[in-house]
Amino acid sequence: MTTLTRFVPFRSPLADVAVLQNRLNSIFNDFARPEGEQESLAMGNFIPPVDVYEDEHQVVLKLEVPGIKQADLDVRVENQTLTVKGERKFEKDEKEENFHRIERRYGSFTRSFTLPQTVDAGTVKAGYDAGVLTVSLSKKEAAKPKQVKVEIGTTAAHAKQVEAKTAA
User: Where residue 115 sits, what CATH number does that domain have?
Assistant: First the structure.
């Protein structure tokens, strides 16, 4: 039997990719779920996305952790490794059978990042605002860029300075 497919001339090819991505994710989630377990998607571990950037003074990490209380976050630095741990807890205020869909991930997470040698691991600062954890690590003084002003003179004066140094 032939299936009819509606042709939409101005539909973005990215929409097809998103549908395919969702289907593949669903297949892999079903495959990874143990027999009889219905809540693995809701209660399983998750990995919060992170942005890492640096400027001349510091390295900054921003982790998206909405719905996690500040008390449930743990930030540590040990042996040039930054580790962020946390847990998003499922609120049991509503009965589970009342939910039609549970797509947000719950459970604990751990993210570890190897810090470059240019970072001073003793100067870690963390802040939490609007579901974003920001961790700032200052760079060591030796790693900060230095500017040296070079005096420009005439070639004759430069030649006399070189002759004076070689004669001494």
Answer: 2.60.40.790
